[in-house]
UniProtKB/TrEMBL annotation:
Span of domain TonB-dependent receptor plug: 75-174
Source species, domain of life: Bacteria
Gene3D superfamilies, per the entry: TonB-dependent receptor, beta-barrel domain (2.40.170.20), TonB-dependent receptor, plug domain (2.170.130.10)
Secretion signal span: 1-38
Matches recorded under InterPro entries: Beta-barrel_TonB_sf, Plug_dom, Plug_dom_sf, TonB_rcpt_bac
Compartments, as annotated in UniProt: Cell outer membrane
Main location: membrane
Organism: Hephaestia caeni
Keywords associated with the record: Cell outer membrane, Membrane, Receptor, Signal
Xref: SUPFAM superfamilies: Porins (SSF56935)
Name under which the protein is recorded: Iron complex outermembrane receptor protein
PANTHER family for the chain: PLUG DOMAIN-CONTAINING PROTEIN, TONB-DEPENDENT RECEPTOR-LIKE BETA-BARREL DOMAIN-CONTAINING PROTEIN
One Gene Ontology cellular component annotation held by this UniProt entry: cell outer membrane
Length: 944
């Protein structure tokens, strides 16, 4: 679903934004030489990571070392890049990789299950960025291309770079940015290191389910050493974690009514849950680096990650305004029913269990060989593989099959946070009233009614990517054009999606859970399944609900019937992409007009072949028909790029980037599968509007989709201070074409399906011109633009005065404007998923004499969030603005017998900020309210 906004910026406003961007850039450029930090050092001053303020050369560690390393990467790069660097071996500065990235300029994270997972860069969601591991594209355990960063233990990485401009040698660059996870290189350490760490975790919300825990842990060990005269290096790491979360969840079905005093908005239905999660992850990494001479350098990397997540969810669904209960005692405030009493409510009591298992493998082997004094050959081979299986179990009770039992009287009252207290009359712990059944009679297999007392989804995914790359690079002597590089890359990616789902019904007679065959419509809850502790939903006013073990019910009290509805069968598919990339570039490094100039000019030629295999399914007169389908398409793209970094003043740079980039559509949009429907009821002589009442229709993917295209201009002004830190102002403009409209529809002639009809039906369809139907499939019909600005200040206060040595601040701010329009609605601009117009982050810290204290606050304005909708399908809703506060204190022993030992205490989400979504641009119409609580950590680490 795409939400549209009627607000926008005129051409005049866009011009003003562009002019303001240039004006600010010019002002910064003029002001930099005269700032308080005008004491300068040569541009070639090395980044030592040490305190050079004259107090004895104290070695900087912790967050100051991390910020210094990130600043050095940013300064040296000709690309526009922001980085997060490890504070020490096995120690990124935050709880997770996503947490660290979310404090970079222009980068935001969406919380899922209480953890930062989905990243948006410059207003574009995870589908528009690419994640690399040591420069190699990675697969994902998710449903699509967006990487779930939980699969990568943060202890394994030296730094994480976010490239925001493109270069011809950067293969698989994203439109919004490219995230490159960089593992430690053992030969760069130059010393043996053994690092151990352990950390305990506690969630601030007590156990919401009796079969869960609020406590977790995280432990890691890293070993780095060099051998054979420092020509052979080895780095090994292992990591284990158990991460709990407790979520108070509230969800509505929406609101009935029109929002007037006579017809106010009334709560359509509610689905509150308490959810307890436990994520278990185990990982290992190995790097072998061999450099016997300056002529040859070989590096082999291996990473393995295994994780399992178990979720216990218990709650009650209340069909209200969208169902048939009678309403009374309605209190209306400005067209909104703030209190309502509903009679004859037939609620569905749910005890669910979800389990996910996933594994991720990554192997890479890089070899660099000097062919001559000026020409080198580099060959890189990699393999990335991920697989995931889900077990999504729903079990339910009600007061009787199809509303045949006693109804409830429920009073709902709106609270200040937008949720409602829900006060029922029935005792939802009474097993004499509530049995295993289908309370609303919603079960239907597409042709007849079934007793759906539960449901099971078992999707599985495999993602496999193999890549081989070779390049030659050389040098030119005595020229500003200092070098050249040509190369080629081949990759093959195959994503397999397989689904199986089942109706669950009480054991006994009958076949396939159908009512007509005599399936029992209800059954008592086995006493062996009851957990003895009925949990409350008191945060919403519900005293207690019946609590049972859903796995016991599944294994002992349910029969299952395969779900063979066409919409379920057509989900199975594979998508295969073969990509040949050739590139070339010239590098620039020299002095022009007395100024140091670096950069590159080049381009990529990319030939793509994409194929999908699946099936087409339809149902007619109760008979499901399946036919295999496959399609292959190919196309070629040319992507030019140019970058430049000019040192206008000592340690003051202007960086420019111009490029054409692309990113491929979601993998589920490239599937060939189609769900074809033939509506016999619309075969009428008087069907005057077949567009609204089509006989034939189809829903599915589009193998012929092309990648999103973007023409990019990036400008960055950067000033680095001699005592450390920097200030940067960055502007960016993206002109987007071939933007995919996921809700695209077009007319199609279904004459080839006339054979499925009777001769009489064929005659009516042909005589009335009803062979034309509607196909719903994504298409590249959108285009538009993104314009934004980023500002960053990395300021160690010793740059102001030595009295404040150890104190510092790292702050970022971002504004992004977007306007994307589709061909079928060229007037209204869509709201991009993941786009917050305003984002910001600030970290204040003190670090000296082994002590460390820091606090980070990050803010994002409202945005379109991707959440799980019906049957776990992704859907989009507006999320409220949020601000998250994290803090940490610690101490490292720097001398004596405890040298190398450090202790820390951390707090995450100290503001206890809930995740809230709403609809229709009306913040009163809350749809989701999820409170995750605070997380507390106590840790210890030892390095020797």
């Amino acid at each position: 679903m795409i939400f549209r906004t009627t607000t926008g910026h005129s051409a005049r406003t866009r011009f003003a934004l562009s002019a303001s961007l240039l004006a600010l850039g010019g002002a910064i450029g003029v002001m930099l030489p005269a700032t308080a930090f005008a004491q300068e050092t040569p541009a070639t001053a090395p980044d030592t990571g040490q305190d050079d303020s004259g107090d004895g050369g104290i070695v900087v560690t912790g967050i100051r070392a991390s910020l210094a390393s990130s600043a050095a990467i940013k300064r040296r790069s000709t690309l526009i890049v922001d980085s997060v660097s490890a504070e020490d071996v096995g120690k990124l500065p935050d709880v997770s990789i996503a947490d660290s990235l979310a404090r970079l300029p222009g980068v935001t994270a969406q919380r899922l299950e209480g953890r930062d997972q989905r990243l948006s860069i410059r207003g574009l969601g995870p589908d528009f960025s690419t994640t690399l591991l040591n420069g190699r594209e990675q697969v994902t355990v998710g449903d699509n291309r967006g990487v779930e960063y939980d699969q990568y233990p943060s202890e394994f990485f030296k730094n994480v770079n976010v490239y925001k401009s493109a270069d011809a040698s950067l293969i698989a660059a994203g439109i919004s940015g490219t995230v490159d996870l960089r593992m430690l290189r053992p030969l760069e350490r130059g010393e043996r290191v053994i690092a151990l760490s352990a950390r305990g975790q506690m969630n601030g919300i007590d156990n919401l389910n009796p079969d869960s825990s609020r406590y977790g842990y995280r432990a890691s060990a890293t070993y780095v050493d060099q051998f054979a005269g420092d020509t052979l290096g080895i780095a090994l790491g292992i990591s284990a974690a158990q991460t709990p979360s407790q979520d108070e969840r509230y969800n509505t079905w929406g609101y009935s009514g029109s929002g007037t005093a006579d017809d106010p908005y009334v709560l359509g239905g509610a689905k509150p849950y308490v959810q307890s999660n436990m994520l278990k992850r185990y990982g290992a990494v190995a790097t072998i680096e061999w450099q016997p001479s300056d002529s040859f350098h070989s590096t082999f990397d291996a990473l393995y990650s295994h994780f399992e997540e178990a979720q216990h969810l218990r709650g009650i669904e209340f069909p209200l305004g969208f169902s048939d209960p009678t309403k009374s005692n309605i209190v209306v405030d400005n067209g909104f029913a703030t209190a309502t009493t509903f009679d004859n409510v037939y609620a569905i009591q749910r005890n669910d269990y979800n389990k996910r298992k996933a594994e991720n493998f990554s192997l890479g082997w890089n070899n660099d060989l000097a062919l001559t004094d000026t020409i080198r050959l580099n060959v890189d081979a990699s393999w990335s593989h991920a697989k995931r299986t889900d077990f999504l179990l729903e079990t339910q009770t009600g007061s009787g099959f199809m509303k045949s039992g006693p109804g409830d009287t429920v009073t709902v009252t709106q609270k200040g946070n937008g949720t409602y207290t829900i006060v029922p009359t029935l005792d939802y712990t009474d097993t004499g009233i509530f049995t295993l059944t289908d309370p609303q009679g919603w079960g239907n297999n597409g042709t007849q009614q079934v007793v759906q007392a539960g449901f099971l989804n078992r999707p599985s995914f495999k993602d496999d990517l193999k890549s081989l790359r070779a390049s030659l690079n050389g040098e030119f002597a005595g020229s500003v054009v200092s070098g050249w590089e040509v190369g080629a890359n081949f990759s093959r990616r195959k994503k397999t999606s397989a689904y199986a789902s089942y109706f669950l019904c009480p054991t006994g007679a009958g076949e396939n859970c159908t009512v007509a065959s005599g399936t029992p419509t209800s059954a008592p809850v086995p006493s062996e399944a009851l957990l003895g502790e009925n949990i409350p939903l008191d945060y919403l006013g519900i005293p207690k609900m019946l609590t049972w073990d859903p796995l016991y019910i599944y294994n002992n009290a349910f029969d299952r019937a395969f779900d063979n509805r066409p919409s379920s069968l057509v989900r199975d598919n594979t998508v295969t992409e073969k990509v040949w990339t050739g590139y070339g570039k010239l590098t620039i490094d020299g002095v022009v007009g007395g100024k140091n100039l670096k950069g590159a000019i080049g381009g990529q030629v990319i030939h793509s072949e994409q194929r999908s295999d699946g099936q087409i399914a339809s149902v007619l007169d109760g008979v499901v028909t399946i036919a295999p389908a496959d399609q292959t398409v190919s196309y070629t793209n040319f992507l030019p790029s140019a970058t430049m970094s000019l040192e206008l003043i000592p340690n003051g740079f202007i960086k420019l980037g111009a490029s054409q980039t692309m990113v491929r559509p979601r993998l589920d949009q490239e599937r060939v599968t189609q769900d074809v429907a033939i509506n016999i009821a619309n075969i009428q002589e008087n069907n005057h509007d077949p567009a609204l009442n089509p006989v034939f229709s189809s829903t599915g993917g589009n193998v012929a989709l092309r990648p999103y295209q973007s023409t990019n201009i990036d400008v960055s002004l950067e000033k680095y201070f001699p005592a450390g830190g920097y200030v940067a102002l960055t502007g960016y403009f993206k002109h987007l074409t071939d933007f995919v409209d996921p809700n695209n529809k077009y007319a199609y002639d279904f004459s080839s399906l006339l054979g499925a009809l009777t001769p009489a039906q064929q005659a009516i369809v042909t005589r009335n011109g009803l062979t034309t139907g509607v196909v719903s499939a994504p298409a590249n019909t959108g285009r538009g633009e993104i314009l934004g600005m980023e500002a960053t200040l990395d300021l160690p206060f010793r740059a102001l005065t030595s009295a404040l040595d150890g104190f510092g601040v790292f702050a970022t701010g971002n504004y992004t404007y977007s306007s994307i329009k589709f061909a079928n609605n060229p007037i209204e601009a869509i709201t991009l998923p993941g786009l917050s117009k305003w984002t910001g982050s600030g970290t204040v810290y003190f670090e000296k004499w082994g002590f460390e204290a820091r606090a980070n606050y990050r803010y994002r304005s409202s945005f379109l969030a991707e959440v799980a909708g019906l049957s776990a399908n992704p859907t989009y809703r507006t999320a409220r603005a949020e601000g998250i506060l994290d803090a940490q204190i610690g101490y490292e022993f720097q001398s004596g017998p405890l040298k190398g030992l450090s202790v820390l205490a951390q707090g995450k989400n100290l503001t206890d900020r809930p995740f809230i979504t709403y609809q229709n641009g009306d913040s009163r119409q809350v749809i989701d309210y999820q409170r995750y609580g605070r997380d507390y950590y106590i840790g210890v680490s030892y390095k020797f």
